[in-house]
Amino acid sequence: MLRVVRSLLIVSSLVLAGPGHAAKTPAKAPAVEPTLAHNLDVANEARLAEIIERYRKETGNSIRLVRIEKGDKPATLNLLSRYQMSDVLSQPKDFVPLHSMMSRAGVPLSLSLSEVLKPGVTDARGRLVALPVLYSTPVLFYNKNAFRKAGLNPDVAPKTWFEMQGYLDKLQSAGYDCPYTSSWPVWVHIDNVSAVSGVPATDAKGGLRFNALPQVKHVAMMATWSKARYFRQFGHGNEASQRFRDGQCAMITTDSREHADFQDARGVELGVAPLPYHDDVYGGRRPALADGPSLWVGAGKPAAEYRQAARFVSFLLSPEIQIELVRNHGGLPMTEAARLASLSRLLQDGKQALDAAYASLQGKADTPSLRVSNVDGARIIADEELSAVWADEKPAKAALDTAVSRGNSVLGARPALKKVQPF
């Protein structure tokens, strides 16, 4: 229809120009190409590029991918990991709320997030300030082939950390030098173990408090596992994930979305279970936390860029893309269409990971929603102290006391970091 209208306009201009007058061809408006900044690895950058290419083919619009460089002003859109949230919190004037951009661009923003996805991306009125893109929660992945070799039932994973020790002993006896490992240690063993134990790692005012008895007992238990070589640490990020993919490690706790990356793991028949819990804490098992990369809007861009960026956000929220993000990238469903699709045959390959993630997230969460892993300075300190415990250089209580004290000093010097989100 649009092409027909344009043709009629051109014909009309020729007629109105009359004989002997050349019609003026309207000047073509320069293409508007908002930027999307990220720091994804090569594989995930390629996946994002595929989505952007699909957007270009379907809409005729374009988004330019750029790398996030330290010190640069934010791009029009910025895909930030949980470990980059300190930049947003400490520089609120460099960003604008997502709902504000969408409203000014005249593009509807209708998204009913579940409660577990809201912390950090909604304001006090429930409006979206950023878009959660690939949220996940920690789960336990295990190699069913390793379980069979160790004489364990491949369909039954340990539910508690106490049960897990027996599994680790059998796996080690079966020849596994790495019975268990973990990616993202602070995210898993500070933020989430604290939440699941009902003793949040932070308080309602944004102070750190992950040195209570349940956290000390957990980290001390991990220290004994490290001495016994039941547990192996390979880094502070996702370095351990490659060891599981290679079949070197029999179990790993990491983001549920890594299910998509483990599908081609060598010699691994994948099993997934909820994050284990401590059954001796008051109140029983509490829900784990959901977190992950989110899309933030940079401030000070031309209105035309914001209009195009708003259209891209709307494209990301379309049912087809939401289903693709769940199926191909392992994210938790954000929209009702994606949630319904997760129960259908469309997503059967990833259904066991989603089932485990949902099981981990069930229950009533405690109020504090600031995560230690979202505060860069505090996370680095906590990583250092955890590594010292697991290397048998420091007792658990002293290490966690130090991590809390040093982390609170960081927050005291930069109080903006105590916020869940900047607006």
UniProtKB/TrEMBL annotation:
Compartments, record wording: Periplasm
InterPro entries documented for this protein: Bact_solute-bd_prot1, SBP
Principal subcellular localisation of the protein: periplasm
Which residues constitute the signal peptide according to the record? 1-17
Pfam families, per database record: SBP_bac_8
Q: Where are the annotated coiled coils located? A: none
Q: Which UniProt keywords apply?
A: Signal, Transport
What is annotated about its quaternary structure and interactions?
The complex is composed of two ATP-binding proteins (UgpC), two transmembrane proteins (UgpA and UgpE) and a solute-binding protein (UgpB).
Q: Which family does it belong to?
A: Belongs to the bacterial solute-binding protein 1 family.
Its name, as the record gives it, is sn-glycerol-3-phosphate-binding periplasmic protein UgpB
